[in-house]
Write a structure and sequence with these properties.
Blueprint lengths: L1 H21 L11 E7 L7 H15 L3 E7 L3 H13 L6 E5 L3 H6 L3 E2 L8 H7 L4 H4 L3 E2 L2 E2 L2 E13 H6 L11 H11 L1 E2 L5 E7 L6 H9 L19 H15 L13 H6 L3 E7 L3 H7 L4 E4 L11 E9 L4 H14 L2 H11 L6 H4 L2 H9 L5 H5 L12 H16 L5 H16 L4
Parallel strand pairs: 1-2, 1-3, 9-10
Antiparallel strand pairs: 3-12, 4-12, 5-6, 7-10, 7-11, 7-12, 8-9
Helix pairs in contact: 18-19
């Protein structure tokens, strides 16, 4: 049913766009607004669609010559499949928010164009330079800017302060390194009379985005999983194997759930006190604030050899086969959506990190962060952050890594063998890009 509704809606948008283009010669620009079909992924909880619809309506009131039509295309994975399918059929969206890690895939498919040619004025150039450098790591390659940061995030640590008190731990002092994390998680783990664990000390999800959560261990262990060009990976590096061994050992110690841990249920497990510490996206901050019926803390990912977390989330992209008028209209919309005041409100409404320093200087975000300091943790982690893992042939290379991680976590392979096998598969896939 969802697919049928999507196809009907997409067909109507395409017909409307064609009708609008056909009528341009005989009517004024105001009567035939430029159509901007806009794919948006709904992957994280909250009233996201209402917020985006509101932004689109507000923009169109200020720009009556442009018609922005948000199309909610499902998860990030579903959205890129639909966007590339539409691209191959010659009817792509004009713009879309897709994962920052989709950049190489979109370039390889010749689906997108860089923003540089549209940034012609000094104001445009200043806008392009206004985003946090950590977010531009996954937005630029080959000297060009292919993505504009929008709903961006890092992974952060959430902890239940009540559980810390019960375990005799200082509720305001979270673990700062791997040794402290393991020691505290041991004290936080609870069992019933039969010996069954009722509360795990630490929970790191390993479904959905296993590679991304794994970067919360590889980054602190001072190792990067891929080069900037997206042509080489380092899965079999001893530091990578060591990081995976640490994760596996948490499960063997009985202080972390065994096997594969679901991405989607991890916040719920936190609400229900099944896990005292969790790692998840800062994009869940608003929903966790609403759902947790206890005092909780938000902190940076514990360090080992260094501090750090991967960035994550989505960028705006411009699709190549749309018309110049549509591309210009989309550029105007994207600039409008990423203005400091709007980026600030988006951060407040969703928990995502505001993408520029200027957004944190707005009165709205200053007041919000003064009242709720945990909202600053993800921003403060950015200087230590690394690019989210991304390569050419990204989906298949990422699958090789994810499969290796899950094999180690379920005990079907040792961490060393799992990473050796993942490395061999990645080398095969990336051979043609070197």
């Amino acid at each position: 049913m969802q697919r049928q509704q999507f196809l009907r809606r997409f067909a109507s948008i395409t017909l409307a766009a064609c009708a609008g283009l056909a009528g341009v010669t005989g009517t004024s620009h105001a009567q035939t607004p430029v159509e901007v079909p806009f794919y948006f992924p709904v992957a994280v909880g909250g009233p996201i669609t209402k917020i985006i619809d509101g932004y689109a309506n507000e923009f169109m009131k200020a720009n009556p010559g442009i018609k922005v039509d948000p199309i909610y295309a499902g998860t990030y994975q579903e959205t890129i499949v639909k966007a590339l399918t539409a691209h191959k059929s010659g009817t792509p969206p004009v713009t879309s928010v897709l994962l920052s890690t989709d950049m190489f895939t979109l370039i390889d498919e010749d689906a997108i164009i860089p923003f540089d040619s549209f940034a012609k004025t000094p104001a445009d150039q200043a806008w392009m330079k206004s985003f946090y450098p950590a977010f531009m790591m996954n937005s630029q390659t080959g000297g060009k800017t292919w993505g504009i940061p929008f709903q961006r995030s890092t992974v952060v640590m959430y902890w239940n302060k009540e559980a810390f008190k019960e375990a005799g731990l200082d509720p305001n002092t979270p673990p700062k390194n791997w040794a402290e994390l393991k020691a505290m998680a041991t004290k936080l783990t609870k069992k019933d009379a039969s010996g069954k664990v009722t509360q795990y000390g630490i929970q790191i999800p390993s479904s959905g985005f296993p590679y991304w959560l794994f970067q919360t261990l590889t980054t602190p262990n001072d190792v990067i999983l891929a080069n900037d060009a997206g042509t080489k990976v380092t899965f079999d590096n001893p530091k990578v194997v060591e990081a995976l061994q640490y994760w596996v050992d948490l499960g063997k110690a009985g202080i972390h759930p065994p096997g594969v841990v679901e991405w989607g249920t991890t916040p719920k497990d936190f609400f229900e006190k099944k896990a005292a510490i969790i790692f998840t996206t800062t994009g869940n901050l608003t929903s966790i604030r609403a759902g947790a019926k206890f005092d909780f803390g938000v902190g940076m990912i514990p360090a080992n050899k260094r501090a750090g977390s991967p960035t994550g989330g989505g960028n705006f992209y411009l699709f190549k086969t749309s018309t110049p008028a549509q591309q210009q209209a989309a550029m105007k919309f994207i600039q409008w959506m990423t203005q400091p005041e709007r980026a600030a409100q988006w951060s407040i409404d969703t928990g995502y990190v505001a993408t520029s320093a200027a957004a944190y200087d707005t009165p709205a975000l200053k007041k919000y962060t003064a009242d709720f300091p945990p909202a600053l943790v993800a921003r403060d982690q950015l200087p230590h952050s690394v690019a989210e893992f991304s390569t050419h042939d990204n989906q298949r290379v990422t699958k090789a890594l994810n499969d290796g991680l899950q094999a180690a976590l379920t005990g079907t392979k040792t961490p060393a063998q799992a990473m050796k096998d993942a490395q061999a598969e990645a080398n095969r896939l990336l051979r043609g890009y070197k």
